[in-house]
Amino acid sequence: QTCFDCESSNPCAPSLHTTDVYYYSHCNSTNMFVQCSAHGGCFDLSCPVGNGAVLVWNSANQTCEYPPEGEEEQAPLCFGCGENENNPCNPLDTDNKFYYSHCDTSMYIQCSAHGDCWDKKCSSGTQWNDAMLACVNTR
Questions:
Q1: What is the CA 28 to chain-centroid distance, rounded?
Q2: Residues 6 or more apart from 38 whose CB is under 8 A from it?
Q3: pLDDT above 70: percentage of residues in the chain
């Protein structure tokens, strides 16, 4: 099998997992990959944004890389709480959504129900994943 996802073709399950292989191509997007934990956990992850372009998964190198020239995808909208930044909190950009991607992938935005905005830092070695609404391991 050449691509996987955690829901329908989980490569981390004991029946499919290859010893010492923890990263796999994702079936839904070239901008995504699957990461397995040493204990069988499965995580659908997105490649980060770099210099305004969404990086793509390179299964041969087991890393996210810049796409070939001319195939760049525009980076998704990012946010910040500063005065001249795109603040998603007041009013909320999306009803009942309180966490957003920050323009710095090592950070995220947390909003309060009252419109307050906070720039939050992910732990060392992690970056924000908007699909999971969490900071995830980058190693």
A1: 14
A2: 22
A3: 85
